[in-house]
Amino acid sequence: MILTGPTIRREVQSGRINISPFRLEHVTSNSYDLTLGPGFVRYTEEIIDPAKPNRYHTFHAGPEGIRLGQGDFLLGHSAEVLGSDHYVPIIHARSSVARLGLFVHVTADLIDIGSHGNVTFQLFSTLPITLTPGMRIGQVSFWKPLGKVELYRGKYQGSRGPRPSEVYKDFWSDTDKR
């Protein structure tokens, strides 16, 4: 079951959903609009290797924003810290932003129950576009789980700012630490 806007508002007030800062005007019929934070990550490797840490550059955009060219890929982050121990957050692009050719969080939209932090947005531009910190770029919906809840305790817990991939940690066994 997806939570409606009034239920999201009520669950934030009760503390069962954390969204900080929370803006009442960002509540929609069944989601909450997320804004873009100022930090970005750009990978600098010529070829990305999932089995190892990849080099990257971090930077911040000023109020004038940042321009992405066609085919650019960056990691950004939500200005909001969010999470819930009671509901599963799912991240989507706002349709108005997607209609401008920006793919936001398309392939990794499920946030684990119990995960709390900034959301890292995967940003892929199909057309040149300017992104401005503070713009409404995505939305989060909340879904009620069915079954026993086990809270997330993974590598991205407590994220602040954009977090580059740590998938390389999945390649290491307990006996083969690189």
Per-chain topology:
Elements: H1 5-14, E1 18-20, E2 32-35, E3 39-43, E4 56-60, E5 66-68, E6 73-83, E7 88-93, H2 95-98, E8 102-104, E9 116-125, E10 129-131, E11 136-143
Antiparallel strand pairs: 1-6, 2-11, 3-4, 5-10, 6-9, 7-11, 8-9
Describe the structure.
The protein is mainly β and 178 residues long. It has a single domain, classed as Deoxyuridine 5'-Triphosphate Nucleotidohydrolase, Chain A, CATH 2.70.40.10. 8% of the residues lie in helices and 34% in strands. It has two helices and eleven strands. It has helices at 5-14, 95-98, and strands spanning 18-20, 32-35, 39-43, 56-60, 66-68, 73-83, 88-93, 102-104, 116-125, 129-131, 136-143. Strands 1-6-9-8 form a four-stranded antiparallel β-sheet, with no helix packed on it. The protein has a three-stranded antiparallel β-sheet with strand order 2-11-7. The mean pLDDT is 92.
